[in-house]
Hints:
Layout: H1 2-13, H2 16-38, H3 42-56, H4 92-111, E1 118-122, E2 126-132, H5 133-136, H6 149-159, E3 167-172, H7 186-204, E4 212-216, H8 229-235, E5 237-243
Parallel strand pairs: 3-4
Antiparallel strand pairs: 1-2, 2-5, 3-5
Helix pairs in contact: 4-6, 6-7
Amino acid sequence: xxHQKEKIVKDTAERWLLTYADLMNLLLIFFIIxxxxxxxxxxxxxxxxxxxxxxxxxxxxxxxVSPITAxxxxxxxxxxxGASSSPILITKGExxxxxxxxxxxxxLIKNGNLTGKVNVQADERxxxxxxxxxxxxxxxxxxxxxxSKPTIKDIGNILQKIPxxxxxxxxxTDSDPIHxxxxxxxxxxxxxxxxxxxxxxxxxxxxxxxVIRSAGYxxxxxxxxxxxxxxKAKNRRVDIVILKSEYNKAEPQVIKN
Length: 257
């Protein structure tokens, strides 16, 4: 009986070790977090974030803005109107691929004497390759002129370097109305121009049709005021946008055949 009482007293006296061990674990986790944050790496940050959220019982993933540095300013988490936009996670591997695409397109513009006809920039969605309508089409037409097809093919070959990302091809016009017997609105013209560029990329550059789409915006998304002929020419364009992988979640699931 005395031995049993002594054992009970001993067990009770050593319970402080459990609290001490828990405290040490919490301190260890805390310093690991501090160390990770002092050496920012998008992949490690994502892994750490997911681990913490799993421990806390939350399903959503933490996102981190990672700018693309290829001679252009990186994306900002604040839009031009002052409203906060959603931060987008881009992994280190994807960032390198985006940088490579940017670099290759910039080289194509320089070596192909395409300055003023093709432009490339990084924004919050990804990489935007803007091609002036004058290079691709005759006025009021959506048929791609023959001498511009090699340029589209060269761009498509560069896009093959980042095959998993969604590609959005977007047609734009100026604000001048169109009534030429073929198209009754700028919506129709811009949509058909984008669709024809998509078709050329799929047929000639073998872009996976499951990762590319077309859209026509008419004159609703200008990059300049439609007040001069020069500005109107800037608005008549086709944008090829290589989207960051985060935007893939917004796409409908594709049923595998």
